[in-house]
């Protein structure tokens, strides 16, 4: 009897509360998440690379996407462009990873646009400089996984001027002043 | 007469090895410090490391050749007027320079090959990598390379100053016998 009342009252309560966003941990363990970047080389081609080590969490509810949050921390020294000498050069001369080992993105708000797309606004920290970035986020999909869990995945890409973060890349030439950063993440619901 | 068999100067092969290694080591040190700060559009941006790696490998091979040669050559006798402690310090400096060269060679090789890339020797030979997944070794190897470079130049400076001191102040044959001049003196 008591149990029934309790269950009924909880049911009633949950109907009054807004939908609860689910918490997800980004699946870095099985590497279903990537932090990629690309930058023009001399204006003739794209050079792409990625950060191998990062971690993060997000929360998301399909019924209330504007309540979403995301928090990602990147180990900048894990930069990987398929060339050991260049990676070392990037760490030492540009990213200065011994002084600024971490980059991060922390969302401040998610906004639903008129066309239904989602735009995230947040603080991006790189090379010790924090600036606001906003970029569209696209849900790739969500649902049960084959191993008893529940997953959701997103992709978002932004472009920024590298010098805004106190990194002098003037010597790389006029075509290489901006970098595209792509976040492709899959989270496992907790 | 027994003393006649004692060498008074180094053989010419040892002398050639010594001076080539000396000049290359200084050139590698200077080029190494200079090339890491070159601008991306500099003509030397790719050329300088190309030379640095090639000369580096050649120097390492010369040093190994020198180690092997030392086993077989007839070394000149110690100069008698030089006190024992100076002989010992000189020997220690030589050993440390050898160690530094070895550290420079290994750390340089690791920096280039840590992710499986070969080391390009003058576009003539690709020295293969021994591993493909040691990118976390690159930064420590870089530190070892830099500090071994400073260390060997400090040792070489001491070594050169000592040679100059022996030549001009003690006026003995220390420097002459590495220049191939047979002074006939053993004192």
Describe it for me?
- The complex is a heterodimer of chains A (190) and B (187).
- Chain A has 190 residues and is mainly beta.
- Chain A has a single domain (20-189), classed as Lipid/polyisoprenoid-binding, YceI-like (Lipocalin).
- Chain A has two helices and eleven strands.
- Chain A has helices at 2-16, 84-95, and strands spanning 22-26, 34-41, 45-51, 54-60, 69-75, 79-80, 102-112, 118-126, 129-144, 150-161, 178-189.
- In chain A, strands 1-4-5-7-8-9-10-11 form an eight-stranded antiparallel barrel.
- Mean pLDDT of chain A is 90; it is low at 11-18.
- With 187 residues, chain B is mostly helical.
- Chain B has one domain (2-178): Up-down Bundle (Fumarate Reductase Cytochrome B subunit), CATH 1.20.950.20.
- Chain B is built from four helices and two strands, in the order αααββα.
- Chain B has helices spanning 12-35, 44-72, 84-113, 138-168; strands at 119-121, 125-127.
- Chain B has a two-stranded antiparallel sheet.
- In chain B, strand 1 (119-121) and strand 2 form a beta hairpin.
- In chain B, helix 1 packs across helix 4 (138-168) and helix 2 (44-72) crosses helix 3 (84-113).
- Chain B is elongated, with a radius of gyration of 19 Å.
- The model of chain B has no long low-confidence stretch (mean pLDDT 89).
